Amino acid sequence: MAAHRQLVLTPSREDLRIAYLAALAIAIHVLEMGVPTPIPGVKPGLANVITVAALLLFGWRTALWVTLLRVVAGSLLIGSFLSPTFVLSLSGALGALAALGLAHGLLPRGSLSALGLSVLAALAHMLTQFIVAYWIFIPQPGLFLLLPPLMTAALLFGGLTGIIAQVMLQRMASP
Amino acid sequence: MKGWGLTGGDLLVLLLAAVLVGGLYGRYWTPASEAGAALITVAGQAPRQVSLDRSRDLQVQGALGPSRLELAPGRIRFTESPCRGKHCIHQGWLSHGGGFAACLPNRVAVQLLSRRRDLDAVNF
């Protein structure tokens, strides 16, 4: 008989922070799935508020963890894990994170506020999703007719989530 | 901009984003360009593609006799036909991608090719 062994994992402060932020993002993500949208495939992406806030408050690594956890755990809750929806969701998230990483890493700190970052992330998210959808699922040139309205929606919702993130961060900074 | 906490970089991102979206509308939502070519099929022969880049007349030898076609930039029509009904001539100009006119007695068919096909078929 093997001796009874106990494995103790001590979460660091950063682990806990990432878990809290990811839980918040997952809750927003799942709640948003319940809100009907007039156009399929277009949703505000309010969970992006958490990604942008995490980026500005704690850096890109935290934003990356929080977002990937949200995509994976969110899809498990919704039941879309490893489905085409999940693939699109993941690719969009990776595209947005890449854009955020570039903007955050290359530009001087403070040159973009939450609004600019959010718009950038939303556009990158939509564009990456669109390219993946075109290459993997619907390789049909007619799909490009959808690109302008989709990018318009990304711009508008990116601005909206950016304003929310901006207001949230300002309230947090001035108690 | 004080109060909102907007930076110059934000405004630049918004401006570039607006230009990008506007450019996408310009690229993908402009009306289909004029038809570039037509496909002419004469009985017993392989279909032949003609370019519609300039105005000219074209004569093809059908089963009954010669059919004359008038070609113009982006459109094509039958002008003379040895058939009795002259339906092909009455069809008039074909100007939409996918548009089709045929002279069955003379066994000549014309289809407009377009970079974007607006119509699968045209019926009268």
Give a summary of the structure in a few sentences.
Chain A is mainly alpha-helical and 175 residues long.
Task: Summarize the topology.
The complex is a heterodimer of chains A (175) and B (124).
Chain A lengths: L12 H21 L14 H11 L1 H19 L5 H23 L7 H24 L9 H27 L2
Chain B lengths: L7 H21 L8 E6 L5 E4 L4 E6 L4 E7 L2 E6 L6 H4 L9 E4 L4 E6 L11
Antiparallel strand pairs in B: 1-2, 1-7, 3-4, 4-5, 6-7
Number of strands of chain A: 0
Tell me the overall shape of chain B: rod-shaped
The amount of beta strand of chain B, in percent, is 25-35%
The overall pLDDT average of chain A reads 91
Can you give the helix content of chain A as a percent range?
A: over 70%
Outline of chain A: globular
Biggest sheet of chain A: strands, sense, closure? none
Rg of chain A (CA only): 18 Å
Number of distinct helices of chain B: 2
Radius of gyration of chain B over alpha carbons?
Answer: 23 Å
Helices and strands of chain A, in order, run as HHHHHH
**Mean of residue pLDDT of chain B?**
83
Strand content of chain A: under 5%
3D architecture notes:
The complex is a heterodimer of chains A (about 180) and B (about 120). With about 180 residues, chain A is mostly helical. Chain A has six helices and no strands. Chain A has helices at about 15-35, 50-60, 60-80, 85-105, 115-135, 145-175. The longest helix of chain A is centred in the last third of the chain and has 27 residues, at about 145-175. With about 120 residues, chain B is an alpha+beta fold. Chain B has two helices and seven strands, in the order H-E-E-E-E-E-H-E-E. Chain B has helices spanning about 10-30, 85-90, and strands at about 35-40, 50, 55-60, 65-70, 75-80, 100-105, 110-115. In chain B, the strands form two sheets. In chain B, strands 2-1-7-6 form a four-stranded antiparallel β-sheet, with no helix packed on it. A three-stranded antiparallel β-sheet of chain B has the order 3-4-5. In chain B, strand 3 (about 55-60) and strand 4 (about 65-70) form a beta hairpin. The longest helix of chain B is centred in the first third of the chain and has 21 residues, at about 10-30. The termini of chain B are far apart. At the A-B interface, helix 5 and helix 6 of A face helix 1 of B.
